[in-house]
Amino acid sequence: MTMTNTNNIQVNPDSTVTQLVGIVPECIVKHYGLQCSNYEVHMPPGVLKHLKNRGHWDDFMAYHQDLPDMIANPDYAGQNPKEPNSVELYKVLGEHILVAIKLNSSGLFLGSFYTLNNGENKIQGRLRTGRIHPFSFFK
Predict the structure, then answer these.
(1) Where is pLDDT greater, at 41 or 2?
(2) Does the global pTM surpass 0.90?
(3) Which residues does 22 contact at the CB level (< 8 Å), separation at least 6?
(4) Which of 27, 70, 92, 101 places its Cα 20 to 30 Å from the Cα of 60?
């Protein structure tokens, strides 16, 4: 498997084609038992439409250049109990950002991206319940 240097990944918010946006750490993929041939995360153009429709566009535009690093080096990671073929990655960059990654027959893809309202409390609550863990837990 070829690993791409995340420094070389540029996220284009105007893209009309599926693009590579990051590489999930192997330890997280294996912990959640995601069956995928590689750890690359792609973003189909429909996700950009989803972000606009759901009111997450401003969040995406503020942080899209940081997306490859958010995926490669999250502060926390977990899984939504309602989405077994997925992982949630959290990054704190002033705001608490959630990067939702899902798995389908084509591989891993960005499902959503947004800042959490009342993020500090949500992170602490999810840590308490065991839904998420610090990234160091997976290493």
Answers:
(1) 41
(2) yes
(3) 6, 9, 40, 41, 67, 68, 69, 70, 71, 72, 110
(4) 27
Tokens of 48: 């950009």
The two structure tokens encoding residue 38: 């590689």
Sorted by where each begins, the domain ranges of the chain are 18-137
- Considering only the C-alpha atoms of the chain, give the largest distance between any 2 of them, rounded to a whole number of Å: 40
Band of the pLDDT at 2, cuts 50, 70, 90?
very low
Per-residue pLDDT, 4: 55
DSSP per-residue codes, 10-40: ---TT-SS-EEEEE--HHHHHHTT---S--E
List of E strands, the chain: 19-23, 40-43, 76-78, 86-93, 95-104, 107-115, 132-134
Residues 66, 68, 69, 73, Cα dihedral to 10°: 140
